[in-house]
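To whoever is on call:

I kicked off a structure prediction for a single chain this morning and the downstream step that reads the tokens threw a length-mismatch warning. I double-checked the sequence; it's 182 residues and nothing unusual in it as far as I can see. Pasting both halves so you can look.
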Amino acid sequence: MDIEERLQCIAEQPRAYVQGTVEFVNDEWIFFDEEAEEASLVEEMAEQGIELFRYGHWLSGQWQETGMIATDLGIFPLTNGDRIRFRKRLTYAYRQWLASLPDPSFFQFVQWLNSLGFSLYDCLYCYNGLLFAKSTGVNFIIYDNTEQIGSVHHYYERGQASSDRFEITLNNGERAICTQIG
């Protein structure tokens, strides 16, 4: 299963989106991120899709250069103050790391991470030794969910028998381990 299929199979992850409002300024649609309080061009943010809040629901769609969003329910024009959101992008190393995990390890890791209060989209940094074709080693992933920080060490072996072991240390000193062997 590829990473896109895996992400579709898991429950909606907290903090997976950047959301805010839009305004038409100087003949361009500007997105105002409500969390980071930053402004960006909508067309630059919408490369991988956009969601528009209408009728009490988020509607997935594709950005049209005319300031319209094409959805399964039709084409909607943007208006000043509309709420929109974009799925956060995962860094290349992190995305490749998630893709490299065998299905059982991936799903067990996500469930474990979520049980600790973290989302896949809380990743701040990922060192992925698998990108360097190392068959054994340790990957380092740092997560921040705004309430706590977690440092995950992923001990792995690849070859005839694969194994994955995850250890997390939280900023309060708590530690936890999760293993997936074979």
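Update from on-call: the warning came from a stale cache, not from the record. Cleared it. Sanity check on the structure: The mean pLDDT is 92.
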